[in-house]
Write a structure and sequence with these properties.
The complex is a heterodimer. Chain A is mainly alpha-helical. Chain A has a two-stranded antiparallel sheet. The N and C termini of chain A lie far apart (83 Å). Classes of the chains: A mainly alpha, B alpha+beta.
Chain lengths: 165, 344
């Protein structure tokens, strides 16, 4: 089917609109959809859902894991572009995280938190993120330090040396 | 009770209205794509109960399953919901205040979509109202939230704040010069959309457009509004410059005068013809070339003569010819004192 607007290119988008008091569907090609403002955040970034997720798919055995609350698979989310329930975000967090980074260039919410009105202090959010990062760094550095000590001890033991000598 | 569009507003020559949409979901039920009929009913009942407990606000409910087609279309015409929302009416509902400045859509793309709208440039005020409603409803409904991801939504492009601020712009001079389509492509690169408000998918009529900030994640509500105001401010400046140049031409003044004459004295008017004339007359009113009528009166006229709303308010079936006559009568009444002041 050809675009109802230009009559030249194939249809990629269907739009519901009201024409003279009636609900009507218009079929548009990608070029006319863009010209008339009908692009989503994903399409204008030239990354449809399929292409955004394709990298993740290669690494993830799709359709294996089901969300325990709604039963959705990651495959369902890719196919429809719709997340099944709030729990899906936790279940498929690792697969979704790079997608968010692709779409928004960010991976942390920095707006309203439940419980009170705007404006809310943003420092709490930043502080939480920084504290998490610091904790991770300390744990990481602890692990590295402990591993280094262990390796050193093992080397000395293997060589018959007293590590405390 | 007056409707929101009857009130005067800041920068109304270009900014028709300011709108905030905020979407939320309940954490213990599947999102709409995976909901059963009983889930939808449950969401509707819970939202209705929560709304009834909101202080100082009374709500009118429209359950789409029970609406006649023109009643549902009238909701879209009055800017209470989208055409997409009424296309699949099962289990969906719209709750709105008497002045229609606040409304809550249930079981659309997300469980709950709150919308606030006000005349002219008023985004911070509208954000404040919607934000307060969100805070009150959250106490009862406990919206799905994740510390790192923000408010959880069915579509990834609303995740985070769940906020979509927009301004409804009147851009006749930019449309006349063919600049809107290029602007639409340009703003899309920045995460915005600019699309027509009436018969938007083929030939946007009435020179009314909606500019929306679609970035909801990694940015605060205040910054999303600030960015939108920055872009809309630039569009306003360009529209005013183009309008000043355009209205100085003999041809444009003639078009404004003719549009007023036809709109004020026609015996029958199709809606598409009304929209074309409305754009010229509104431009003339804003430039001071037409006196005796205020811009908010003209905008109220637009809402009154939209096809489905006209039928609904008539309270009886009307033939196509009767609808056109009734539309022309409304125009004649509003423009009875209007006069063309050429050369102003």
């Amino acid at each position: 089917m050809l675009c109802q607007c230009c009559g030249e290119r194939p249809v990629t988008t269907r739009i519901k609109t009201i024409v003279n008091g009636r609900l009507t569907e218009r079929a548009l090609c990608a070029v006319c959809a863009q010209r008339l403002g009908y692009t989503s955040l994903l399409t204008h970034l030239d990354r449809g859902f399929g292409s955004v997720f394709s990298d993740c798919l290669e690494e993830t055995p799709a359709g294996v894991e089901h969300c325990p609350q709604c039963g959705a698979t990651f495959d369902d989310i890719i196919r429809t572009g719709l997340v099944g329930c709030a729990r899906c975000y936790e279940t498929f967090r690792e697969q979704l995280q790079p997608v968010l980074q692709h779409i928004y260039g960010a991976d942390v919410h920095c707006g309203k938190m439940p419980g009170e009105n705007l404006p809310q202090p943003q420092q709490n959010m930043e502080l939480t993120v920084l504290q998490d990062a610091l904790r991770d760094a300390v744990e990481q550095s602890d692990r590295v330090r402990r591993q280094a000590l262990l390796n050193e001890s093992l080397r000395r033991l293997e060589g018959g040396e007293d590590p405390d000598a | 009770m007056h409707k929101w569009y009857e009130a005067p507003g800041i920068d109304r020559d270009v900014v028709f209205a300011s709108r905030i949409r905020m979407v939320r979901n309940l954490s213990d039920l599947p999102f709409p794509v995976r909901m059963s009929a009983s889930d939808r009913e449950r969401v509707c009942l819970r939202v209705e109960k929560a709304l009834s407990a909101v202080p100082d606000l009374a709500w009118t409910a429209a359950f789409l399953d029970e609406q006649e087609p023109e009643q549902a279309v009238s909701l879209v015409e009055r800017q209470l919901c989208s055409a997409e929302f009424i296309a699949e009416p099962q289990g969906r509902a719209v709750f709105y205040t008497h002045d229609e400045s606040l409304c809550v859509l249930v079981n659309g793309i997300d469980h709950v979509s709150m919308q606030g709208i006000a005349s002219g440039s008023a985004l911070p005020d509208v954000l404040n109202r919607v934000n307060t409603l969100d805070t009150v409803l959250d106490r009862t409904l406990r919206f799905a939230f994740h510390t790192q991801l923000g408010y959880l939504t069915q579509r990834l492009d609303a995740l985070g704040t769940g906020l979509q601020p927009s301004v409804l712009l009147f851009l006749p001079a930019l449309q006349q010069g063919g600049a809107v389509e290029q602007l639409s492509s340009d703003v899309a690169q920045l995460g915005f959309s600019l699309r027509g408000l009436f018969d938007s998918a083929i030939d946007p009529a009435g020179a009314c457009y909606e500019l929306t900030n679609r970035i909801s994640f990694g940015i605060s509500e205040a910054d999303a509004v600030k960015n939108l105001l920055s872009i809309s401010g630039q569009l306003c400046t360009r529209e005013r410059q183009a309008r000043t140049a355009f209205l100085q031409t003999e041809e444009a003044q003639d078009a404004v005068g003719r549009a007023l004459a036809v709109l004020a004295s026609a015996r029958a008017l199709e809606f598409s013809e009304f929209l074309r004339l409305y754009a010229s007359v509104r431009m003339g009113v804003c430039a001071g070339q037409i006196g005796g009528v205020r811009v908010e009166q003209l905008d109220s006229l637009l809402f009154a003569v939209e096809p489905a709303t006209l039928l609904q308010r008539a309270g009886k079936p009307l033939s196509a010819a009767q609808q056109q006559e009734r539309r022309a009568q409304f125009c004649g009444a509003v423009l009875s004192a209007a006069s063309f002041l050429p050369g102003v």
